[in-house]
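Researcher: I'd like a candidate sequence for this fold, 170 residues long. If you have to choose between options at a position, lean toward the conservative one.
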């Protein structure tokens, strides 16, 4: 009788776990679908190893990378370089992801450039910390948005204002 009771509990718990597994698989598929279809690039960087844990297709396309070759292979700052407008490389300690990983700060910064081959792509980078239950930073979410159109508009506006002010002076 006791054995039958335990077997019944095991069967019941097994059903519960299977239902939970299916629910988690559905949630995982929804998350993958959402992140894969984001119009901006998204990376997840591990706080300890500084390796890329996840890269969505938009990031891979923007950075010219193969996602399967990137994940957990190199540190994020070895995978792609960031540059200032003057062409100098952004030091690792000044990179938005590094600041987020070390200080837990949310960062939103435009006017940073990524060189993909010969192309110089202006990007808007947003970073956010991911914390565990204890409040420790375990990773950082890095969002990369191609800022090319806005950059060109801003550059044209600046040139126009400069030209107009020069013309007015003369």
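Model: Candidate sequence:
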């Amino acid at each position: 009788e006791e054995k039958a009771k335990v077997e019944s509990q095991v069967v019941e718990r097994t059903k519960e776990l299977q239902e939970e597994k299916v629910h988690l698989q559905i949630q995982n598929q929804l998350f993958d679908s959402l992140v894969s279809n984001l119009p901006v690039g998204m990376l997840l960087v591990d706080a300890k190893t500084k390796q890329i844990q996840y890269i969505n297709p938009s990031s891979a396309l923007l950075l010219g990378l193969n996602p399967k070759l990137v994940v957990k292979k190199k540190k994020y700052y070895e995978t792609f370089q960031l540059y200032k407008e003057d062409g100098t490389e952004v030091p690792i300690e000044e990179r938005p992801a590094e600041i987020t990983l070390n200080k837990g700060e949310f960062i939103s910064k435009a006017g940073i450039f990524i060189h993909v081959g010969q192309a110089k792509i202006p990007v808007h980078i947003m970073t956010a910390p991911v914390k565990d239950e204890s409040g420790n930073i375990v990773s950082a979410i890095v969002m990369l948005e191609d800022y090319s159109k806005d950059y060109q508009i801003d550059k044209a506006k600046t040139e126009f204002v400069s030209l107009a002010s020069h013309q007015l002076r003369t």
